[in-house]
Amino acid sequence: MRKLFTVLALICFSSSVWAEEFIIEDIRVEGLQRISAGTVFNYLPVKIGDELTDNDVQGIIRSLFKSKYFNDVQVESDAGVLVIRVSERPAISSIEFVGNKDIDGDELTKSLRQIGFAEGQVFEQAMLERVELELQRQYFSRGKYGVDIQSEVTPLSRNRVGVRINMTEGAVATIGEINIVGNASYDDDELLDAIESSTGGWLSFITKDNQYSRQRLSADLETIRSFYLDRGYVDFTVESTQVTISDDKKQIFVTINISEGERYKINDVRLAGNLIAPKEELFELVTIRNNAVFSRKAINDSSENLTDRLGNDGYAFANVNAVPDINRETREVNLTFFVDPGRRAYVRRINISGNSKTRDEVIRQEMRQQESAWINTQKVEQGRERVSRLGYFEDVNVETLPVTGTSDQVDLNYDVTETASGSISAGIGFSQSDGIIFNANLTQRNFLGSGKHIRFGFNNSDFNTTYSFGYTNPFATIDGISQGFNTFYREIDAREANLANYSTKTLGGDINFGVPISENNRISLALGYEQTELDLSDFNTIQRYEDFIAREGDKFNAFPVTVGWTSDSRDNALLPTRGMEQRITFEVAVPGGDLQYYKLRYNNNWYRPISDDLTFALRTDLGYADGYGSTSELPFFENFYAGGIRSVRGFRANTLGIREDDQPLGGNLLVTGGAEIIFPVPFMRKSLRSFRLSTFFDVGNVYDQDQSFDAGLLRYSTGVSAIWISPFGAMSFSIAAPLNAESGDEKEVFQFQLGSTF
With a threshold of 0.85, does the pTM exceed it? Predict the structure, then answer.
């Protein structure tokens, strides 16, 4: 007897009843095209020899539908043979995307493959509908609310289908209006200036600030909340937000309903808990005072200051909670900082990662926090800053992690990102008269990862031929005393350097030492020897050069001794944002040589952040030199010069100061300086650590021995500059406009220096 059971949908098989039980003698599967019989057998809950019951039939149907390979399943019995007839679902032969401009087709294909919708997979209508909804969500997140997605499924031979997804993206919906309701103390313009979203401006095509984003709106709501809480509005709330879209789906309208509440002041500030440190000392770290306007930012800063102070005594996980007691009748707040220092912890281990080239010992010798000692968060940060100042790393981070299974131990994990420490640096200048001038130097500031400095210079420009070699060991002793030496041979044609009609040949060298005298201060000493041969051009027209040679000769031996002091508290040696670097050097050619002279120079670079993205910088470079003893005046080839990308930008290098026969002479008094506002690249979602821009104001000049300082002779310039610590080395560019150039001054608007690294 043949019994036929047909199941068209899964909801129907539960009511099916098997009229007669029998022993399965064989199993036959009919209707297969792509799926193998073995695959079907793997899904069956029965096998040959089993007794088939009504429940087994339902289990067969359920299992095969669950495999998602089949549209229809029929179960029959034929003289002891279990017959299963199936209708396979089609396979996806191809997927085609049409009209997608914002979303790359390859990325779409990759994403759909991860959810099982790909060529060769079984086609499911429900899955296609999920794909359409996900695509719609993706376009909504890009502000294209008018997107239209239509799918076409085309049957093909051998039970296959082709899927074509047509996308009409439409235009990006922009914010038509942002309304803030409930603000009485601050007008709409002030609040709208504080948030990122806007109705657009002339740069919106770059910033995209007029495109609606749910995440951006959430961030803007928190910004408004912080705005009010930092100005005393303790009860401020965002009551609701409404976002509506125009009928054509091209504009978004946002309404933010707020309740400002009343403004509160601080009545009393207290410290409570286990204070550890003297109470008076801790109070000095609290930045919010009695009668001040309530400010969440000031409270958070105070909590952070207290936490840092406790961390200096070994309490790395101190917890400081600010608890306000609000009196709404008087609109006053009593603020209590509850201090819980936790357990004191010591450092078990200092781990270093990311240093593929630099040896661990080079980094460890900069650490101020020691292993097996109580943790001091200030010393931990000092170590991070000292490693940053080495100039070997683009980024240095430190993380404090508790040791599992202990309550009083931590590990410090320093993670560094190395930058190229070896470089072939190039200086390139351009002018209408001389074209391009090139010079190069080879430097390895971290030789073989040892921290030792190796320098080899070769310069073969039109005006300067130099061969030099130098070596410095910054840690010749465990106390940080440095030792090194330099040797050089240099030929200079001053005429090609924008100077005058003379040339020099100099052979020399020195040995040098550096001694740390405090955390950020060093003194140095260099003992040198120089042999100089001077040659005046036949075209020389400057009488003072002739007089000097007549008086002193044209070959000189000199023994320069240089004493220096350096102070460096910058947070980074390459692109600092805070701190100061100062340097004083005093070079004197001592008796025993043919020339006696001295040169005193002071350099200062000061950086201070004025916001999260802006840094204010000041630069000063002062110098004074003169002859003494048997040398009546400073040798003219030791003069200072000004102008150029490292001096007063906008003026050609080495051309400022007094001139004779239209040739710059330099001087024995140098005064230059400048101010800059440093900022990241605008309109970028993620700032580049290695690239930044600045606007600058430069000032300076050099004064001859017969001149005294005259502020009226200073030259000024302003402009924009860029510096990039690229994989090819440091690159700097400037565009400057001289503000008070005089007749005879040589201007150079665009200046740059390039480099490459290895």
Answer: no
